[in-house]
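Justification of computing resources. Each target in the renewal requires a structure prediction run like the one illustrated here; the chain below, 223 residues long, is used simply to show the kind of job we budget for.
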Amino acid sequence: MKTDLFLSEGVKFKKNYKPDLLSWNEMANIINTRPLMNDKRVKLLGNNKRYEWLCTKWTKDPNCFPPSLIKKLIDNIMIYFVDMSRATEKINDFAKHIEDDYGKQTDAHIYVCRNLKIKHHFGVHYDFNHNLIVQCEGKTNFKVWDEVKNVDRNLKGIGINTRLEMEVEPIMDVDMESGDAIWIPKHFPHLATSLTPRLSVSFPLSEYSDTNLIREDRTWITL
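Resulting structure tokens:
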């Protein structure tokens, strides 16, 4: 059986590992590119409201959030954006670096939290994929606990992995600043608490998605 390199490396933290991956200005450019704001890419945490808007006759995808609405939502709730591994050249290049290192397909999930009064929607939780998380703007406290054993993957998606009550101390407790990175293997509970307005990118990797099966086209063209 092939060794899972990410899992074998375990939880780790590196200071100033990937500076300048994504700035607030660059994030604004992504949001302003309305076709990227499809409702399948935009995830509103803790908000089940239905939003509607008018579209012009030229609109090809009416399911894309208007930038002004995204701005209003960002100031009040936590949002993350998926399928963003080619959103910028720097994110694309770093995703390729991760895929080359670990041999697994990856995506980029961009997390934005500008309201410090709200709690993390997932609370203490573990994921079913490995995650490499880069803090891009602001400061976030990350706590990580030891691995949850004997996870039943058949129960995935029904909430067993969120809002956990931890009875032991975390194995890692760090304040992440711009450029810092943390590696969190699957099934390791963790909690992210925004200490200032936060912009971060999480790169999830699945053990079942080897790059030798298929991988994203990481070519970045110039004209």
